[in-house]
Amino acid sequence: GNYGYTVSTDGGTPAEKTGTITVNTPSISVTTTAMDLSTTGWAASSSTSRAVSGSNLVSNISVSVDVPFQVSNDNSTWGTTTSFTKSGYSASGTLYVRYNPSSGDGTDSGTITISATGASSRNIDVTGTAAAKITLSSGSATQSVKQNVAITNIVYTVEGGVTGASCTGLPTGVTFDDETYTISGTPTTST
Known about the structure:
Layout: E1 2-8, E2 16-22, E3 27-29, E4 35-40, E5 48-55, E6 61-64, E7 69-72, E8 81-84, E9 91-99, E10 107-115, E11 122-131, E12 133-138, E13 154-159, E14 174-177, E15 182-185
Parallel strand pairs: 4-11
Antiparallel strand pairs: 1-2, 3-5, 5-9, 6-8, 6-10, 7-9, 10-11, 12-13, 13-15, 14-15
């Protein structure tokens, strides 16, 4: 704000001088539109970015977010916090954000908080979705065996926002274990 002041003499011939002191409030500028990030399985999503700047700063700009979201100021070093160092009384840079889930139902939400001493904090809502992913981890997905001869176990890894898995179309005698995601057994029929 602006503060007008007056200096006046006491006694003798009156004299007066006026002036203005302007106090600039620190501010942070960033687009706060919500971010929606997605990935497949338990892998980091591609990053998305926003320009961040600050003026009249008396501290660096700090950024924080909760797991499983991550932030970076260089799109290389990731964590739940990052910062933008002020030069003089300003700072600017690019904020990178990604979703990096490792468990749960594959649906998360959070808030990125961007702050600096004396400035109004800015918040960006983020959501993340991890689509299901099935990966063959051992055995061969396609096998040709004789009737009454055991198949080689077929084991899958299931990850992402899933609560289980099922399997259909197996020959009689061959089963699917929905806890270990393993197909095993001995086919007793050939049709």
